[in-house]
Amino acid sequence: MDVVEACKAFVAVSGHGSFTVGAAAARIPQSVASRRVAALERHFGARLFTRTSRAVALTPFGREMLPSARRLVDLAEALEHDARRAKLRPFRLAVPEVCAPRPLARLVADARRHDLDLDPRPAGPADRVELVRTLDVRAALVAVPPDDGVWRVPLGLAGHADPGAASAVHVETLRAGRAERTARRRRIRLQPEDDVPHVRDRLTRLRDAVGLQPSQVVVAPSLVAAAADVLGSADLLLCSPGQAVDLGLHWRPIGELDLARGYDVTAGLREDAERIRDLPAAAIGRCLDGGEGRP
């Protein structure tokens, strides 16, 4: 027996003195109201109403039970109201700053179909972790080594010059020859999203292994700054394929290194993390690629 629904019928019938009118007020059939009240009487082991052919009246036991039944019904209605409000309350999610507007908007639309009102908060890798720690967001898409992540975004090098038929860019080709030692050396520019150990340190070790100068791998203050430097020179940008398309750059994988961003979900509460993981993985993946999702 559903005690709450039975009490709703009990309260409605007592308020109108009729099973027919009370059932109509409760928006249930009269037969359902009768069954629910009868079930409540069996549960309590005493009659709530005296019944005649014309009306019903509360028994002394029914009068004693009515205030408690009303409190239970009011509490249940308040609980349902709070649940509806909780579903509509924005769910703050820290996302990488590389997420482009269009795939991010699609993710928000997909989340709404799952009764989740996402409120994305773009932030850098370290800031996203801190936002979860301080409870400024309920969850975050955090940078992790690609083998540990739910999502993996390949990284390569992109420049404004078309590399032609080249299938990959080899970092060792950036090493200056004897005739070029007085010229400005080409650089690899990292955006803030890739200023994490599992990306930055691997590329730095490759830089040292092939004999590049320390200044030839640099972290830019922003993606815009990094892209501007690449568009105005022969430098290369470490980025995803989607970002390269949006910036009008030519992307190739790195010849000596399989480099990728990895992402996972973290949250203060396990159920909040699960709510994000329950969203379509492909929709989140499109956001993390950093492009606008062009076909």
TrEMBL record:
Domain HTH lysR-type, first and last residues per copy: 1-59
DNA-binding recorded as keyword: yes
One GO MF term attached to the UniProt entry: DNA binding
Protein source organism: Saccharothrix saharensis
GO cellular component: protein-DNA complex
Keyword line: DNA-binding, Transcription, Transcription regulation
Family note: Belongs to the LysR transcriptional regulatory family.
Source species, domain of life: Bacteria
Pfam family, one: HTH_1
Protein's name according to its UniProt entry: DNA-binding transcriptional LysR family regulator
